[in-house]
Amino acid sequence: MDKIVQFVQKSNCNATTVAVFGAIGAAVVAFKALSLFKVFVDVFLRSGINVKKYGAGRGGWAVITGASDGIGKEFAFQLASKKMNVVLVSRTESKLKAIAQELEEKYSIQTKVYAMDFTKGADKDYQALQQLLEPVEVTVLVNNVGTNHEIPTPFEQETDKIINDIVEVNINAAMKMTKIVVPQMVARKNGLIINLGSFAGLVPTPYLSVYSGSKAFLSSWSQAIGAELAPKGVTVQNVNTYFVVSAMSKIRKANFLIPMPKPYVRSVLGQIGISGGASTPYTSTPYYSHAIANWLIDNVFSRGFWVNKNYDIQVDIRKRALRKREREAAAAKNE
User: Fold this and answer.
1) Beta strand 111-115 with 85-90: parallel, antiparallel or unpaired?
2) Which of 77, 124, 136, 117 shows the shortest CA–CA distance to 101?
3) 198 a known binding residue?
4) Distances (CA, A) of 243 to 105, 136, 199, 252, 290
5) Sequence-separated contacts (24+) of 255-263 with Cβ below 8 Å
6) Residues 6+ away with beta carbon under 8 Å from 29
7) Which residue out of 54, 107, 114, 211 is catalytically annotated?
8) What is the pTM of this model?
């Protein structure tokens, strides 16, 4: 009889344990499903802060770095279409002037251009740019300029120049540009700072270690200054970006995961202040396929899995890039 009682008690205990763990599992699944549902609501149903809040149509100026091509150029056109005056900053003056003329003729806005090589990090350039911006009401800053490794490369084999260029362009330029414009934003209690981040800052990327580290810095720094500036009326948004068709990505054809600059920038400007697929503060992953990918990285498999996955991808890309270099060298030798 005692054995029967013990068996019943043990069975009840086991059933209770199973029920408790089942309830926990169901709660976890429900939470994950709810977070995925929120991603779809964010990217397909919600509208972000209208750029009119930041001076569009009211004489506000947007400063865009890396403005002569790709994403930066598209930001210039879309902000100009919303009646924002624009300051275009990039390396090639002839390109900047041509874009500025087109923007003025098409949208009847004002423009300014400043040609500088961000890899040099020259104080005289930043001082001249500060003087150029002092008379205007800067309400938006797009820290878009960036550079990457030429091909995936082990850190110990990377050149000092490429390492220094990545740090100077991806880290120092963003801080210096922000330092120039943020005082007047704080004084007016209104401003928007968009930092172009990367999935490489979300998941460490072997063979692109310096670039990956620079984007991780940008993510952490954006969150820090975002918290500092929010009570002062300035919105900071680190835009977590997967690949976009551009010269830097070296991708020429769009697909589900890799959009053209136009729809990508439209998603960024349409969802200011909305997290989309991002789970970190003051960060947004607005483009729908990027948002889903961001959610999967945060919720499926371990971070170690994704780091190792990046390793395999970059090793394969490096092999193909080296073979291409060998073919080009052989072809040049035979000419």
Assistant:
1) parallel
2) 77
3) yes
4) 31, 34, 9, 11, 9
5) 256/289, 257/289, 257/290, 257/293, 259/287, 259/289, 261/70, 261/71, 261/73, 261/74, 262/74, 262/78, 263/287
6) none
7) 211
8) 0.92
Q: How far apart are CA 158 and CA 172, in angstroms?
A: 20
Which token pair is 100? 């500025």
Local confidence band at 334 (pLDDT 50, 70, 90 cut-offs): confident
Active site residue 211: yes
Please report the domains of the chain, with CATH numbers, ordered by start residue.
Answer: 55-315 (3.40.50.720)
Q: Quickly count: other Cβ atoms within 10 Å of residue 318's Cβ.
A: 17
149-167: pLDDT as tens digits:
999 999 999 999 999 999 9
Asked if 197 and 222 touch (Cβ cutoff 8 Å), the reply is yes
pLDDT digits (tens, 9 = 90+) for 186-218: 999 999 999 999 999 999 999 999 999 999 999
CA-based radius of gyration for the chain? 24
**pLDDT at residue 29, as a whole number:** 78
Assigned token pair, 142: 């797009």
240 three-state secondary structure: coil
